[in-house]
């Protein structure tokens, strides 16, 4: 009964059974994604509306508080201009100006200004010329200045209160001007003006980290917690407005650039959401920044106070709420899908159990067949492994033999130098021993003792030569550790006779580090590289040899460089091939570089040739670094 459905399913092409299922899964995933987005948007929108309501309520309280502070700061000086009507010396000066009366009023205004805390108090005649001022002692005093063009004077001389915010034409300093027409017998005989600085309000806003500004009747920001916003227009100015403001000199020579938001959404009376580019002075470091702007008209002035409340935190919280709503829906959908899939699993498990029993019987039969095949294959593999191990042992022995042959070849090349090194102390020993016998016969014991000491030193020297040769000639293996400084000293000692004859200048700059290679093998590599450099520079009068190295992570790079004629580009690809050499037959077998590269590779390193543009040849030996002693310094003989 279970075989019929299976046969019918196998008869259907795979494309017709797989594609509808994939399409259903894709449509289900798309539907879930759309639902998640919908729930997230609804959560974000509801959270944003609630946050804006809360921010608006908090902002209204702050708006009222700070607006009243601005009004209080402005109104505290309104009584001062009219106070001058009570001073008889002021009326006398306006009616009959004399130097004595001007000096008397100057002193009075100076004291009054000091007690009131205003920026300046000054007196104008009906023609707009300053007769007396509190800053008469200063270099930039207003005394004698013609201010008839100022709007506050024109208002006050007609009997109306003069209120004006502008930048002084003398000092270029901004201030709020309060003007009052002074009367005598029902006629105006002059104008009293008080200049007030409102920068203390800006300082308070900055300390409170409040983002707010005050704009005047022309839409120009005159006070702001951000100094970069001062003298900017909050609305577009026409060419006629700009020309009128420029002629009035109210803002001196400021450009009055526009400060327009990127977007503006009116949310109610005096309430709107605005956004600015991040490069704007109130902006953030990048992107776009949004604010909730609340504006209120200030009493007794045509000014407007605007409070900016950042919406970044509010929108960030709204995004979080939207994400939580989307994640909650996704979790619920996942639980429902998991429950549905679990139901399907229970339904199909019963049917799968019978198919599993049949498949298990078939599998056991196939396993028995495969096991037999695997046993036969295993036997063949074991035989191949034994054969490969034997081959590797033979290769290792052959390599060790080549290494030893290379050492003996180097020793054979150095035989003349070694014989010369030994002949010199032997000849000296013969002479010193004969002289010592004669000195003993004569009783010159001090001279004989000196000769014997010299003989002892010569014997030690010969012992060091033979010891170095024995150490260099003995066999070694792939494992071990080597001290680089010791290996360099040993290689230079073995070749020092050739170094002396060549008149070579040696530049040595290596660290005494510990490398992962056998000491003897490192010495053999260095002997081969230095000997090749000496052969390349033979016949030159200015022979230079550089031994330099540096640590590069867990690897130490040692470079052996000469200033010889270099290697012909046609021969560079064959440098590390066995039995390839550019030397005459009696001077080399072509195995030195091959063996050196093989020894470096066996130790986990490498040997490579470089061809500097300045000439010569450089070989770079890279070996694993075991330990760098503390306080190691480069040395040069």
| Helical residue percent band | 40-55%
How many helices?
15
Estimate the mean pLDDT confidence.
77
Per the CATH scheme, the topology name of the domain at 479-637 is Heat Shock Protein 90
CATH superfamily placement of the domain at 479-637: Histidine kinase-like ATPase, C-terminal domain
Strand content is 15-25%
Distance between the termini: 95 Å
What is the total tally of β strands?
Answer: 18
Overall structural class, as computed from helix and strand content, comes to alpha+beta
Low-confidence parts = 1-12, 14-18, 280-285, 631-637
CATH architecture verdict of the domain at 479-637:
2-Layer Sandwich
Describe the main β-sheet briefly: 7 strands, mixed
Write down the oligomeric state: single chain
Please give the CATH class of the domain at 479-637.
Alpha Beta
Shape verdict? flat
Transmembrane segments: 26-46, 318-339
Protein name: C4-dicarboxylate transport sensor protein DctB
Main location: membrane
InterPro entries: dCache_1 (IPR033479), HATPase_C_sf (IPR036890), HATPase_dom (IPR003594), His_kinase_dom (IPR005467), HisK_dim/P_dom (IPR003661), HisK_dim/P_sf (IPR036097), Sensor-like_sf (IPR029151), Sig_transdc_His_kin-like_C (IPR004358)
């Amino acid at each position: 009964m279970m075989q019929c459905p299976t046969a019918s399913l196998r008869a259907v092409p795979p494309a017709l059974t797989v594609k509808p299922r994939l399409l259903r899964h894709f449509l289900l995933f798309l539907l879930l994604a759309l639902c998640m987005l919908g729930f997230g948007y609804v959560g974000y929108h509801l959270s944003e509306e609630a946050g804006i309501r809360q921010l608006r309520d908090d902002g209204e309280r702050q708006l009222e508080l700070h607006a009243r502070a601005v009004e209080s700061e402005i109104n505290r000086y309104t009584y001062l201009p009219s106070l001058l009507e009570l001073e008889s010396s002021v009326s006398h000066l306006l009616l009959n100006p004399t130097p004595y009366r001007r000096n008397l009023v100057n002193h009075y205004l100076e004291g009054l200004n000091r007690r009131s805390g205003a920026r300046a108090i000054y007196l104008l005649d009906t023609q707009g010329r300053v007769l007396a001022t509190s800053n008469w002692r200063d270099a930039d005093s207003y005394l004698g200045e013609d201010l008839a063009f100022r709007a506050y004077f024109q208002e006050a001389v007609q009997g109306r209160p003069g209120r004006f915010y502008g930048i002084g034409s003398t000092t270029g300093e901004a201030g709020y001007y309060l003007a009052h027409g002074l009367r005598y017998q029902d006629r105006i005989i002059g104008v009293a003006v008080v200049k007030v600085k409102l920068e203390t309000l800006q300082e308070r806003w900055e300390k409170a980290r409040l983002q707010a500004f005050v704009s005047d009747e022309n839409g120009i920001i005159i006070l702001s917690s951000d100094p970069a916003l001062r003298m900017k227009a909050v609305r577009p100015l026409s060419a006629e407005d700009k020309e009128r403001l420029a002629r009035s000199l109210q803002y001196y020579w400021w450009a009055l650039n526009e400060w327009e938001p990127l977007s503006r959404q009116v949310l109610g009376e005096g309430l709107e959401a605005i956004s600015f580019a991040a490069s704007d002075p109130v902006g953030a470091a990048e992107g776009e920044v949004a604010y909730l702007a609340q504006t209120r008209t200030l009493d007794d002035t045509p000014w407007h106070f605007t409070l900016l409340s950042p919406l970044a935190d509010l929108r960030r919280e709204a995004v979080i709420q939207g994400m939580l709503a989307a994640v909650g829906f996704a979790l619920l959908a996942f639980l429902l899908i998991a429950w549905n899939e679990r139901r399907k699993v229970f339904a199909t498990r019963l049917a799968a159990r019978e198919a599993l029993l049949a498949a298990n019987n078939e599998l056991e039969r196939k396993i028995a067949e495969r096991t037999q095949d695997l046993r036969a294959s295993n036997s063949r593999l074991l035989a191949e492994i034994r054969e490969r191990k034997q081959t590797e042992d033979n290769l290792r022995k052959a390599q060790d033999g080549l290494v030893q042959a290379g050492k003996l070849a180097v020793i054979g090349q150095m035989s003349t130098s070694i014989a010369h090194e030994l002949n010199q102390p032997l000849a000296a020993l013969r002479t010193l021993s004969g002289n010592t016998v004669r000195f003993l016969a004569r009783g010159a014991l001090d001279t004989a003792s000196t000769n014997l000491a010299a003989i002892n030193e010569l014997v030690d020297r010969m012992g060091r030569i033979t010891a170095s040769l024995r150490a260099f000639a003995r066999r070694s293996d792939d494992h071990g550790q080597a001290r680089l400084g010791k290996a360099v000293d040993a290689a230079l000692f073995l070749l020092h006779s050739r170094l002396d004859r060549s008149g070579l200048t040696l530049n040595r700059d290596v660290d005494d580090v510990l490398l992962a290679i056998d000491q003897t093998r490192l010495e053999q590599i260095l002997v081969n590289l230095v000997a090749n450099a000496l052969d390349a520079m033979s016949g030159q009068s200015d022979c230079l040899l550089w031994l330099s190295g540096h640590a590069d992570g867990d690897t130490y790079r040692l470079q052996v460089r000469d200033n010889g004629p270099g290697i012909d580009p046609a021969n560079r690809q064959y440098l590390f091939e066995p039995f390839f050499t550019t030397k005459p037959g009696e001077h080399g077998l072509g195995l030195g570089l091959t063996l050196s590269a093989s020894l470096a590779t066996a130790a986990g390193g490498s040997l490579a040739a470089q061809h500097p543009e300045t000439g010569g040849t450089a070989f770079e030996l890279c070996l694993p670094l075991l330990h760098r002693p503390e306080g190691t310094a480069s040395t040069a003989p």
